[in-house]
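Lecture 7 notes. Example A: sequence first, then its structure tokens.
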Amino acid sequence: MDLVADRLTGGALTLKQAADEVRSLTGLKPHYATLIRWMSAGRLAHYRVGGRVMTTRAALRAMLDTDAHRKPRTKQRDAVEAAGAAAAARIAAGQEAA
């Protein structure tokens, strides 16, 4: 991806515009701080214009295509999801949740 070429063709986005673009592509609208975290982690390409942090549509699409914006799986997250599934199964079977 070429940030310079994308900027010259009108693909430059402010953080608010980038959040709106993510919403139009995924249905989820991240807070601008989430975009900054993605940028700091190297997941989302960006550049500065004066005091503004900018990105491009191409950079957003590339990140969303690679699922780099998703949180990594953790043992704790897996344990919580397993416990929730087990409780739901007990409730569905008519047993009381322990």
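Example B, a different protein, same format:
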Amino acid sequence: MSMTVALVLFSLMSLSFSILLTPLVRTWGIKLGAIDIPDDRKIHTRPVPRIGGLAVLLSCVLTFIIAVQYLPPDLYVFNTDKALGYLGALLIFVCGF
């Protein structure tokens, strides 16, 4: 399998995970009470769950775990730079949560 085909497949996989997880995370956010109540400064008119980014993060993590299993070892080498990148992405998620 060429790298281009692999990247397209993994992108579609991540998109599929996001589409499947978003309604579940939305329901979970409503049950937890993690909602944004509209007021004069807000655009939305109904309460909106605030944890939608969790679905995106989970879909990326799931796709990453699956991709690492199928990519040849010479195409993906885990090193300190990548670890710091993942840690940075997690920090951004936690700050927004």
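Note on Example B: The radius of gyration is 17 Å. The beta strands are 35-36, 48-49.
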